[in-house]
Amino acid sequence: MAPKLEVIVASTRPGRVGPAIASWIEAHAVEHGGFPEVEVVDLAELDLPFMNEPLHPRLGRYTHQHTRDWSAKVSEADAFVFVMPEYNYGYNAELKNAIDYLHDEWKYKPVGLVSYGGVSAGTRAAQMIKQVVTTLKMTPVFEAVSIPFVQEFIDDGRFTPNEIMTSSAKAMLDELTRVATALGPLRTTDVLSAP
Question: Is 146 exposed, middle or buried (0-12, 13-18, 19+ CB in 10 A)?
Answer without folding.
Answer: middle
